[in-house]
Design brief:
Number of domains: 2
Radius of gyration: 18 Å
Strand content: 5-15%
Number of helices: 7
Length: 191
């Protein structure tokens, strides 16, 4: 297999921007990821998402490249829907990514709610998003919390990389972290 020659980031961005402009003219809503500085996620939920993704040791060789891609503005479009993420990432070409996420199992959601019962100090704290560390430990638990496990994902990228998670998919997952806000996770549903 022959890999495409290296294309500098500025040139890739310019090529991707031309394609994105064509899509905008056709009426497609484009939602790029724009990272200010080095910090990818600004919210608790976004940081927890990124930390959770990094706990998947089977992807640790792809995640650093994904961080670089999301930080340099290569995630040109990211659309989060229930159970599915669609994105476009600028690489040696403009790649299209689809990530399917299995929904949280109802029994697991009930278990999380039951475990958290009595750990919320007041309704006002709950409504303002101030949750105790005990609650946060439950909802962010690596295996039993709200976030999907590695087996809950199905990745599809049209790049030539044969790996299950390529750097473009990793960039999109970090892009999700940059978009997560405390109100985006409700009733055990994603998106």
């Amino acid at each position: 297999m022959r890999w495409a020659p290296y294309v500098p980031v500025a040139e890739r961005r310019a090529q991707a921007e031309k394609k994105i402009q064509k899509l905008k003219k056709k009426g497609q809503l484009i939602q790029p990821i724009e990272i200010q500085g080095r910090t990818i996620a600004q919210t608790f939920w976004g940081k927890a998402w990124c930390k959770h993704m990094e706990s998947f040791s089977d992807y640790d060789n792809r995640l650093p490249r994904g961080r670089t891609y999301v930080r340099n503005g290569s995630v040109c479009h990211l659309e989060i829907n229930e159970g599915q993420i669609k994105a476009m990432v600028s690489g040696s070409s403009l790649y299209h990514i689809t990530i399917a996420i299995k929904p949280l199992v109802r029994e697991q959601w009930h278990s999380i709610k039951n475990t958290c019962r009595g750990k919320i100090s007041s309704l006002l704290d709950l409504l303002s998003g101030k949750l105790s560390s005990g609650v946060m430990d439950v909802v962010c638990h690596p295996e039993k919390g709200l976030f999907p496990l590695s087996d809950d994902f199905t990745f599809d990228c049209n790049c030539p990389d044969w790996a299950e998670m390529c750097k473009h998919v990793a960039a999109v997952l970090y892009g999700v972290g940059s978009r997560l806000v405390r109100h985006s996770i409700n009733s055990g549903q994603w998106g």
